[in-house]
Specification:
The chain has about 450 residues and is mainly β. It is about 5% helix and about 45% strand. It has an 18-stranded antiparallel barrel. A two-stranded antiparallel sheet has the order 9-12.
Length: about 450
């Protein structure tokens, strides 16, 4: 029998005083937790893991999620198959992922790709982890993929191009590691859901357009452009580009790990003008490996209020000028579709999609000028009793041209959200969980709620 085969089922019951699931109970859950309650969630998962000793191997995962209560639904949260040779991997399907440098276990959400929305179906080739080069002193991690967006926004039949490249300087067990890299996402192609009879009803979707999407080159004489290309495509970029430039320093003393990281936001090609370099996510994670009631504590600060109007010190020093500096980038919004999938934001959940706000709007991110202070703490009371908390104080405003005047404190509305969870391992097959969440402020609905869950490993 292949001991790498596993299966589990999980059931969770939700309730709250307002009929809305608290923010940190529903966020960063790959779309598996409904906004409305009371209700129940049923998850069933099975998969085969890699056997690392084999030079070649394959794996798969299938996870189904069902809702019952105020809203009923059923779908495959994950369904993928992958093949491996060493550190290289090729896979296809729907798979849970995050992109960026930071504390993936306790973050409040990586900027561009956070694990907040249902996984997007795609085909990807890349490395599973860092490949060690130069006798281990250099590590490289890279991915390249093609994906298919849903039809919920103004564009249907659209595509997603995604790639990432990250480097590590220092051996994996060195006292200090330095990381740097970039992730790049492009929503492109497809057609307008509502046809107007104009040139923008159908967007360039052929291989010649894909060349410009991947390379971001602007010399349109390199490859013949598609006849459906609009003036905006020809003069700027094909599709909507966004991502983050990432830096991190990891220190590994004997007692644990310290990680300091910065994810700098960018949209379109203006990131190279450094007008968005001050926007993004800054974090500090401290992990304690010696035992105790606290295992991990993470502090993060998210700031997205410049939106292309910022003139950095580096830009001034190198005399870099941005001809579009008076234009607002309006993060996660685009005329061809916002940065969402399945009705949830793909990036950090702290830039809240209007659909989940008090006004219950659409699939846009209206108040995307954000200042957010976040703290996550996890630990254990015993070897079988674990706890975790997430707390955020966030301020929201509409984006504004900051050249004159800049946003001031009175332009922002306030939102507090908190959650605490407990997990008790009953035996090798069964565990119980209990959660409480609370929201108070002006961006999401005020609520106090909780959940009770049971997880059981079949084999």
């Amino acid at each position: 029998m292949d001991t790498s085969l596993h299966a589990k089922v999980e059931v969770q019951f939700l309730t709250s005083d307002s009929g809305t699931t608290p923010f940190w109970m529903r966020s960063l859950q790959y779309g598996q937790v409904p906004i409305e309650n009371p209700g129940a969630i049923l998850k069933a998962w099975t998969g085969k893991n890699y056997q690392i000793k084999k030079k070649y191997d394959w794996k798969y995962e299938v996870e189904a999620t069902g809702w019952g209560g105020k809203f009923n639904d059923f779908w495959l949260t994950q369904a993928f198959v992958s093949g491996r040779r060493g550190k290289w991997e090729l896979w296809a399907g729907r798979r849970k992922e995050m992109y960026g440098l930071g504390d993936s276990s306790l973050t409040g959400g990586f900027y561009a790709w956070s694990g907040n929305a249902v996984p997007i179906p795609k085909i990807q080739i890349g490395t599973r982890d860092y490949m060690n080069l130069a006798k281990g002193w250099l590590g490289l991690h890279m991915t390249f993929s093609h994906a298919w967006m849903d039809n919920q926004g103004p564009t249907i039949q659209g595509f997603l191009h995604q790639k990432s490249l990250y480097g590590r300087f220092g051996k994996p067990d060195s006292f200090i590691n330095v990381f740097a890299g970039i992730n790049h996402q492009v929503m492109w192609g497809g057609e307008a859901k509502v046809k107007t009879g104009g040139e923008s009803d159908y967007y360039p979707s052929k291989l010649n357009t894909y060349f410009y999407v991947v390379t971001v080159l602007k010399d349109r004489e390199l490859v013949t452009t598609d006849s459906t290309a609009t003036y905006d495509d020809l003069g700027n970029q094909f599709g909507n580009h966004l991502g983050s430039f990432d830096l991190a320093i990891k220190i590994q003393p004997e007692w644990g790990e310290i990680l300091l990281y910065k994810q700098s936001a960018y949209e379109t090609g203006r990131g190279f003008a450094l007008t968005q370099i001050n926007d993004g996510l800054t974090g500090l994670s401290i992990k304690n490996k010696t035992g105790g009631i606290i295992d991990n504590i993470t502090f993060e600060y998210l700031y997205t209020a410049n939106q292309g109007n910022y003139v950095s010190g580096l830009a001034t020093f190198f005399k870099i000028k941005d001809p579009h500096q008076s234009e607002i980038e309006s993060y996660f919004n685009n005329g061809r579709g916002a940065w969402q999938y399945g009705g949830k934001g793909i990036g950090t959940p702290l830039i809240i999609i209007d659909k989940e706000s008090q006004s219950a709007g659409g699939l846009e991110f209206t108040l995307n000028a954000v200042k957010s202070y976040y703290c996550g703490i996890s630990g254990r009371i015993s070897d079988t009793f674990f706890w975790k908390t997430r707390i955020s104080q966030t301020f929201y405003a509409s984006p504004r041209n900051h050249l004159a005047p800049r946003l001031i404190d009175s332009d922002f509305i306030s939102q507090f959200s908190g959650m605490i969870s407990f997990q008790k391992i009953v035996n090798e097959q069964c565990s119980l969980s209990l959660q409480f969440g609370y929201d108070e402020g002006s961006r999401v609905k005020n609520t106090l709620g909780g959940s009770l869950g049971l997880k059981y490993w079949l084999f």
